Amino acid sequence: MMRVMVLLAAGSVLMAQPALKPGRKYTTVERLAPERLAAVHAAREELARQRQNLQPVGVYQDFPAVLHIHAEDAPHTLGKRAEVLAAAKATGLRVVMFSDHGGPKPDTWQGMRDGVLFFAGAENGGQHELVYPTPAPGLRFHSHVEGQMDASPDGWDGMEIYNRHADAEDDTDMMAWLKETSKSPEKMRALAELYARYPDEIFASGCDYWPEIFARWDRILAQRPFSGIAANDAHQNTVLAGGKLVLDPYPVAFRNTVTHILARELSEAAITASLRAGRAYVSHDWLCDPKGFSFIAVNSLGVYEMGDTIPMTGNTRIVARAPVAARWKFFHNGKVVLEKSGDTVTLTAAEPGAYRAEAWLEIDGEQRPWIYSNAVRLERPNLLSMALPAQTLDAGIEAEKDIEYTQGAPEDAAKHKLDIYRKSGAQNVPVLFFVHGGAWRQGDRGQYPFFGNHFAKAGYVVVAPSYRLAPKNPHPAQVEDVAAAFAWTVKNIAAHGGDPKKIVIAGHSAGGHLVALLATNPEWLARHGLTTQSIRGVMALSGVYDIGGPIAEGSSVFPPDPEVRRRASPVKWTKSGLPPFLVTYCQWDYAVLPQQAAAFHQALQVAGVRSELVYLPGENHISEMTNLPKPSDPMSAAMLSFMGGLH
User: Fold this and answer.
1) N or C: which end of the chain has fewer CB within 10 A?
2) How far is CA 354 from CA 79, 278, 336, 357, 590, in A?
């Protein structure tokens, strides 16, 4: 450890003091003073009181994990697997990754055990690596980088950005203090009393921040994706008083340093894929439970999370959110580009590259690191890959345009029309009634010839209406128009080649909300003398189903009246007897839409309604529509399969 000489108020004696790392005000020994421990404990309790319960914004669950735990490595870890499991359950961990020198032993646990997923890997001290074998190529992380800062990143999946064991070895003052304390029974009694009250505070007194490690990580991140993990390195071997006082028991060590892995499910394949991609963050959970933390990139295409590469279209924003207010640092290719306090902070990104965040908490007058995110990567968009599908019709497909389905104010005439697509000569074929999206404020049927062409080729008569838009025409203008267009379709589609007894309704985004509302709240069809018996099935594609939820807060589309919003929420109208539903969402959907899809699907099933929930990986909120005409498109396949099962 670097040291500097300073004059202390102790007569004329010169004493050596350690050079404090960023954020620190006190040395480790000073942090161990009773008044300091009490102050830190009080700060933790206050953070727990302030903490918000935040819901996920994307498609992943947060699985807390500890990496680099020793199972059968030495006498002090031999046979401690049951203790590890008990500690994992007590601290809320879902993943434990063992790594013994020389590889896993025959008895090292692997797979699920009592709700916790265990991995068996290896620590190779000579090569400074952690390796976790999997059915696919194993994960390989550079470990103990504090002692080997010049290793090439080639061949590695990532690196440790924090290692609790390294802090302990580095803190020579702490080690000397413990050695001296252990010689005095009186001091040991005092330490035991303090430890009984402040075990986490004492264990964390040596936690530090390593700028040189993060600088190395940033240099690599600027070149390529490179996952950052924490090595908890729990040994349960800091023992004093002849074994009577253990300063690093598994529960305390596990709370101290956690790698939170974002994955869709708790399985070896999902966890390893997320670790390889960098869908994770490192946290000192002992300070404050970080659940609900997110570090995302948002633009008109959707919401992207850590480990993702994001095309920069329009206004791309980097957003960090935590359950308590923190001091944030945003880094772009290693350079601090934003420092700001709050529970949510946003940066409008101007340049491509790797962005990551750190969250720090003020604890007893010190800035202490709390959360380290992995990176999101921004890149210039590939305009060819983002091109809209062709709007021309294939041979044998014909369109009827601008058919009036209802009358209203003259200025609304263009929105009270619909278009029809069908094969030439179609007679009495199934009908697909499609409602466009656009946040209830934008969009028009004229944008969807590609949709009509695609499903007309598949043997459907496609009806695509426009509707009045907000804010000029707030709710319920949109659903009123959709109901009127649907009623026109039931009464007139036979003359245009469709079977009025085989109508499936579909909508994307705001359109998903409108078709779901049409099928669940009976008042809109009743105005036209119709019931849901006229609807063969519903396909709600990345829609909104709870207007009282976060998606509509502050919206000028729906009035603030809670009763109006309840009546506008399809999830509030689920009941038996509704037509079958297909509910979809995608990997990079808009915020909270995945959660709304899952909740709506569950509500339908509870009501006894047939519902299929489909997840679309590798798609954003826009591409899930524009990719529909491509061969083997997953959403097109899901829609055709669903409709085929109805007729």
Assistant:
1) N
2) 43, 12, 12, 10, 22
* Highest mean pLDDT out of 31-35, 80-84, 556-560: 31-35
What backbone torsions phi and psi does residue 156 show, to the nearest 5 degrees? -100, 150
Residues 91 and 255 sit within 8 Å (Cβ to Cβ): yes
Gap between the Cα atoms of 232 and 249, Å rounded? 12
Give the CA count within 13 Å in the CB-facing half-sphere of 473: 17
Q: Which of 305, 230, 195, 194 is nearest to 64 (CA)?
A: 230
Q: Find out whether 298 and 316 touch, Cβ atoms under 8 Å.
A: yes
At what angle are helices 185-197 and 34-50 packed, to 10 degrees?
10
**CB 237, CB 258: distance < 8 Å:** no
Distance CA 559, CA 395 (A): 46
Per-residue pLDDT at 75: 67
Q: What is the pLDDT of residue 233?
A: 81
Signed CA dihedral, 308, 309, 311, 317: sign only: positive
Residue 569 CA: distances (Å) to CA of 224, 471, 475: 44, 19, 12
Q: What are phi and psi of 407, to 5 degrees?
A: -110, 150
| SS3 state at 128 | coil
Tokens 């200025």, residue? 411
Q: What is the pLDDT of residues 233-257, one digit of tens each?
A: 887 777 776 667 888 899 999 999 9
Task: Could you please state the CATH topology (level 3) that the domain comprising 397-644 is classified under.
Answer: Rossmann fold (3.40.50)
Question: Beta-strand (E) ranges in 38-164?
Answer: 61-69, 95-101, 111-113, 116-124, 129-132, 139-142, 158-163
Give the ranges where 51-147 is alpha helix by DSSP (H): 81-91
Q: Hey, where are the domains in the chain? A: 21-379, 397-644
Closest to 389 (Cα-Cα) out of 54, 152, 50, 623:
623
User: Would the CA dihedral through 77, 81, 82, 84 be positive or negative?
Assistant: positive
Q: Give the CA distances from residue 307 to residues 153, 223, 310, in Å, rounded to whole numbers and listed in that order.
A: 17, 14, 10
Q: Using CA of residue 250, residue 256, residue 257, residue 261, what is the dihedral sign?
A: positive
